[in-house]
Amino acid sequence: MPDETTGHLTPEEFRRHGHAAIDWIADYWASLEDLPVRAQVAPGDVRRLLPAAAPEEGEPFDALLADLDRVVVPGLTHWQHPRFFAYFPANSSPAAILGDLLSSGIGAQGMIWATSPAVTEVEQVVLDWLADALGLPAAFRSDGPGGGVVQDTASTATFTALLAALHRASGGQVRRHGVGAGGWRVYGSTEAHSSLVKAAMMAGLGEDAVRTVAVDPATQAMDVAALGAAIREDVAAGLRPVMVHVASGSTSTGAMDDIGAVAEAVREHGTWVHVDAAWAGVAAVCPEHREHLAGLEAADSFVTNPHKWLLTTFDCSTFWVRDRAALTGAMSILPEYLRNAATESGEVVDYRDWHPQLGRRFRALKLWAVLRTYGLSGLRSHVRSGIALAQHVADLVAADDRFEMVTEPALSLVVFRLRAGDEQTLAAMEAVNASGEAYLSHTTVAGRAAIRLAVGSWRTTQADVDRTWRALQEAASAQG
Ligand code: PLP
Based on the domain organization, do 357 and 375 belong to the same domain? Predict the structure, then answer.
């Protein structure tokens, strides 16, 4: 029981319940295999099981754990399930969880260097390690004018990149006077993630400021000639191309825009080149899977999410810039209560200037734990196994005449459909999802429905892929 007057768990109770919480997680993981992957509840089912108000008196901590089993687990879609293949993975791992737990236990708020120097400096070093591990250009490292930062999500990183781009393009005017009727234009392919449009909305440019560029129908990659033509047309009309978004692994099909060619097409306009490799970027831990990042030397910023495929519990999105001055120029603000000698010395990085929010937790700790526990060789094995399993799926698709691939497999993502048509494709997918056997998600490619199967969990084996495939085949057969 918590202390009756204060509610605090005693140190001994904290240890005991802490062990029980870790045991709960280990038991939950052990049970995943037998749980339906997608939540089987209707709207309101979970709410109905919860009291209308918080308890007046403290309850034993065990009551919370019991409610996880009774109330929460049935209402979960199990993202850590070995047959979770929907969207992109949001991998957790034992090392990352312990790192995250330690971060909570330390409870430091690393908004500026001075509020906990280790939070900032560990983050800088871990991001330099990861930059090197991914083969990123040296300009992104923190020992030059650039550097990396852990953001909550790729959406925030893209928004941040846009703010930096506006700062640079306006010569600092935007932070003083706002975007006004600046005629700003942002470019991305029709396959760019929706966070690009959202960034334009949040930056006050409006969604119409985003000009979508056609893709090559065969690869779904941005048509760079069309980009060049669009920019020339806009410049002739007096508009200002502020940022181009390069998809390096699009959400829908894993399409890879040509970074170098895009950068070349916008060079004369000084347009900021932001590379969004939210999912695919981490594959570059394997030297043989770096091809999609060719040309990155010409980019201004780059984001990839270890919280997707690289075993680092959500949220951990790693964002690098070539020149941090644009970023801090756009966002730095120093109220009196945050003034300190270290900031004034100019010798330290204050991460509050690298993203919209002030407060920040020690997210780098979980990434540090992952990098140290797995080692780069462990991470490479994990990525390679996902890619090999995706290739296995592609082979299964090829061996069944009723199915066809929609695009070439992209790393660990396979996109396919039933030849019979959209309705049949979506019905087969929904039958598998409803059965709980596996969880897949859909997209449209050139206006036609397709099934996406994204491998990523460290628990997924070939047997899981085969079982999912059999379920899809049965669903296809059931349609006659
Ligand atoms: N960019 C791409 C290419 C993505 O696939 C996603 C999510 O799947 C995002 C951005 C957004 O990621 P986040 O949830 O980290 O904002």
Answer: no
Distance from residue 230's CA to the centre of ligand 1 (Å): 25
Residues 413 and 394: their CA atoms lie apart, in Å, by 9
Burial of 44 (0-12, 13-18, 19+ CB in 10 A): exposed
Q: List the residue whose alpha carbon is closest to atom 2 of ligand 1.
A: 278
Is 220 a member of any domain? Answer: yes
Note whether 125 and 243 are same-domain residues.
yes
81 Cα–ligand 1 center, Å: 20
Q: Ligand 1 pocket check: which of 85, 153, 195, 302 to mutate, most ligand atoms within 8 Å of Cβ?
A: 195
Region of 212 please: left (phi>0), alpha (psi -120 to 50) or beta.
beta
Positive or negative, the CA dihedral 204, 267, 262, 412 is: negative
Shared domain for 320 and 416, answered yes or no, is no
| Final residue belonging to a domain, choices 324, 344, 361 | 361
Average pLDDT over residues 23-33: 97
Weakest mean pLDDT among 5-14, 153-162, 181-190, 412-421: 5-14
Using alpha carbons, select from 176, 198, 178 the residue that is nearest to residue 186: 198
Q: Look at residues 338, 361, 384 and tell me which one is the last residue of a structural domain.
A: 361
The predicted-structure confidence for 403-462, as pLDDT tens digits, reads as follows 999 999 999 999 999 999 999 999 999 999 999 999 999 999 999 999 999 999 999 999
Contact 428, 60 (CB under 8 A): no
| DSSP-derived 3-state class of residue 452 | strand
Domain that holds residue 127: 108-361
Per-residue pLDDT tens over the stretch 283-305:
999 999 999 999 999 999 999 99
Q: Which two tokens stand for residue 350?
A: 């204050």
CA distances from 218 to 36, 221, 249, 420, 445 (A): 36, 8, 15, 21, 10
Atom of ligand 1 nearest to the CA of 153: 15
